Amino acid sequence: xxxxxGITTLTVDEPLIFEKGSPGRTGVSLPDDKNIGKLGGTxxxxxxxxxxxxxxxLSQVEVVRHYTRLSHYNYCVDTGFYPLGSCTMKYNPxxxxxxxxxxxxxxxxxxxxxxxxxxxxxxxxxxERFLAEITGMDSVTLQPAAGAxxxxxxxxxxxxxxxxxxxxxxxxxxxxxxxGTNPASVSMCGFKAVPVKSNKDGIIDKKSxxxxxxxxxxxxxxxxxxxxxIFETDIKEISAIVHEKGGLMYGDGANLNAFMGVVSAGKTxxxxxxxxxxxxxxxxxxxxxxxxxxxxxxxxxxxxxxVPVIKKKDQNYFFDYDIPGSIGKIKSFYGNFLICVRAYxxxxxxxxxxxxxxxxxxxxxxxxxxxxxxxLYDLPYDTPCLHECVFTDKxxxxxxxxxxxxxxxxxxxxxxxxxxxFPLVVDGALMIEPTETESKQTLDLFIDAMTxxxxxxxxxxxxxxxxxxxSRVGRVDEVLAARSxxxxxxxxxxx
Length: 495
Ligand SMILES: *Cc1c(COP(=O)(O)O)cnc(C)c1O
Fold this sequence. Notes:
Elements: H1 33-38, H2 60-71, H3 94-101, H4 103-106, H5 118-135, E1 139-141, H6 147-164, E2 171-175, H7 181-188, E3 192-196, H8 206-212, E4 217-223, H9 235-244, E5 248-252, E6 272-274, H10 277-280, E7 295-297, E8 309-313, E9 316-320, H11 337-373, E10 389-391, H12 394-397, H13 403-412, E11 419-420, E12 430-432, H14 440-459, H15 461-465, H16 478-483
Helix pairs in contact: 3-11, 5-11, 6-7, 11-14
Bound molecules: pyridoxal-5'-phosphate.
């Protein structure tokens, strides 16, 4: 393997600060002790310590380099390609940050009176309108803090809707390609998650659906395009089957990046859909940063949305807390406000045609990867994909190489691995989502790396078994690393 073509920060090996420096080295030069007195006692005597055991002694530039290098350990979209399927790790334009930093947005307090918050409320009102337009829905709440939280809010709305009609429905249908958060949200609301099978084309099997759909089913939770990156072409018929028995169509909108401005979710029959602003609308995510998962609903479900609902009267915005059917609050204040500001900025800077172009480019990029890699990697569903594509390790298994080995080896080539072993319906899945913000050159570098890895799997499988070899920490025991992580350094621990 030649040069690392992705990025190199995964392979930086920076020692701990305790392991650097040398006795007597300092970061700043203070005047001599006797002069300190003359300067008026800059350092009070009680703060002057002769010795601190094991205290690192480094020059200023060493300290700056140390922490700057450490900051690069965190692989991010600003340093390299991040093909994590189902996560839409697109670039986060810096103008979003500039706008979120404006004092009118960042210095505002959530308890500030409404008449002093009109600009911020206007932003929220407009963002709700934009998201309603993009999804083809009627009303939106910005309160949920993430996609899974949007699902929970949606299921609470579904529950309130049936309670209002005096109906006790106990089941929610979940396709076998669904994200794990779907059955979790359903169970948290007291529903039973009932699986629906997909067919050989990777989409929901209408017969299986009709078989399980009855009047005890409150809703189906459907991801479209599904997590195989395949569009549910029968979505309208599925809606008809569900609606006929009085059920609701819930959309997991995490994959909205595949169809913004191209397909109106509302027109496909969905009654509710959550949106992951931190995926589709370019706000930063990963590392536990704040997300935002607004919920959009059709008319007839808006009366259950969380309070307060933002409204406009005579050019003035106000919060309406008087919504008798509301499920109540699901988040403090009004949601993750500054994330909404970033998404709002993104939408305005792209415009309608820009959003559509982003989705179309995301789809082209995924199909480019799919067609270039399908000679080398098994493609379980060989149809054109939308914004992501799913391969397996079937061909490499012949040489004893698994998806995990391929993912680990990508680190040696300087790339973040894609999502692996998801969706669960695909054995040894490698789920790749390039997003629209990657250039052809970047995609080609990734294809080169994947090509080299396929070659190594055949001719030098041991190389993959021991990967990553270039990173600071090599192959860890997956279970031990998760269950008993060693997070504290001690001298001589070899960590
Ligand atoms: C990311 C994702 C979710 C969960 O969203 P979070 O914002 O991570 O809570 C749900 N479903 C799908 C398909 C996803 O990709």
